[in-house]
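Bug report (template v2)

What were you trying to do?
Predict the complex of my protein with zinc ion.

What happened?
Run completed; filing so the output is reviewed.

Input:
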Amino acid sequence: MDASGISTPNAVMVFDTTLRDGEQSPGAALSVDEKLEVGRALEEMGVDIIEAGFPISSPGDLRAVQQISRKIRNCVICGLTRANHEDIDAAAEALEEAARPRIHTGLGVSDLHIRHKLRTTREKALEWGVDAVKYAKKYVEDVQYYTEDAGRADQTYLYRVLEAVIVAGATVVNIPDTTGYTTPDEFGALIKGIVENVPNIHKATISVHCHNDLGMATANTLAGVLNGARQVEVTVNGIGERAGNSSLEEIVMALKTRRDLFRLDTSIDTHRIYPVSRLVSQLTGMAVQPNKAIVGANAFAHSSGIHQDGVLKERTTYEIINPHDVGAPKSAIILSARSGRHGLRHRLAELGYSLQDGQFEKVYQRFIKVADKKKAVDTRDLEAIVADEAQVFFEETYQLEHIQVTCGSHSIPTATVRIRGPDGHVSCDADHGTGPVDAICRAINRVVGERNELIEFSIQAVTEGIDAVGRVTIRIQADEPVNGGERRVFSGHGADTDIVVASAKAYLFALNRLIAARREAAT
Ligand code: KIV
Ligand code: ZN
């Protein structure tokens, strides 16, 4: 839209109804101040028309439309009404201070609505509609007329209604698929039929308002645009009655990403899409599903090794939108069991680790084991793994192959270990103790035979959640001085999703250090 509010040839007007149809979502009610905050965010994002509420519905809605009319000066502000004078009076009052007010009135056009909801005839309903437009015109120049349930209406009747309300002064005619019933082909054909059969249609803008009951709201809206609609009615995050409305972010980004096909522009600053989505989600309390197009947490997250490899080589191999363009955080490489070496190396490099091939391989093998147990391996898990596997700057004399512990309130804590020794010989032994950790240390001592005293044991959850990696730190003190002087203390750490395994690793790590120090002292 240009400065005077006139639509330019290649423009599609964005009519945002987050504050009206969106707010009709169960549990999404907003206070007047919250509505104003959303309204400001919509204005900043560049929407053309804000449907600010349904003024007759409650004093709060009326006040919200009033406040928004007063404070938001760069958008057309619209208020919804039914096709009666009382509703229109309330809307006019609410919109009094708007820089560019619009009244949105209308009536059902399907026989279902005319017969069962309005309990009238087609002819009478048509007269009401025309009367409502004429009445609204007394207050404002800009009157939008909705033909509720147009998706299920008799098309010849719909054409007659549209022609009549345009004659009465409607500037915009809204074609809602109120129940989300149509398919894209059908909805596109409906708009095409209107363009071809309503003689005065060129005097009004065609608007499309699609609901998502069959998951086709976005596709239907775009089909409408391809067939001549030049206003799209949308909500942030697609919130709205039942399954919601066509979502702003999907429509805007479809038009932008596939401009080659649509050759149409909107006035939306797409960089504001993600922050506004967060704001609406927080204020309405309606979470955005992780796989939601454009604004979901996973919209720019790559989990499979093949995809990670592609994205790291060239982002566009698996991304059709740059997350920066919608103000979303940059693409995330999610490390999971499906991640490959390339993804892991990249993440480690980002964290500042540059590992030798041998070290990297150990980290990778360990990472795969952790990833098999956890859904996603995060930064702190990785740090624990690297500390555990890669920062071993001494020769590991003994390696843990297997550990098994039994314990419980009525059993004697017992540990069985299998350990590979310096000559490759594998030994198996078991012992019991006062608790599982004591039993582990005793069982390991039976194989290793290095006398020491355990002086500290601590355990820490590296990551939150039930599947967290636990990191165990153990400090032992050698029974005899290693190279004269004091009895030295050696620390060891181990990380694993199983704290029993982490404890065994930590203890053996400390023992290996002690043995390495003794060996060094002897040479
Ligand atoms: O879905 C619908 O038909 C509506 C109208 C009131 C425009 O929301
Ligand atoms: Zn609706």
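What did the reviewer find?
The mean pLDDT is 90. The two ends are 83 Å apart (CA to CA).
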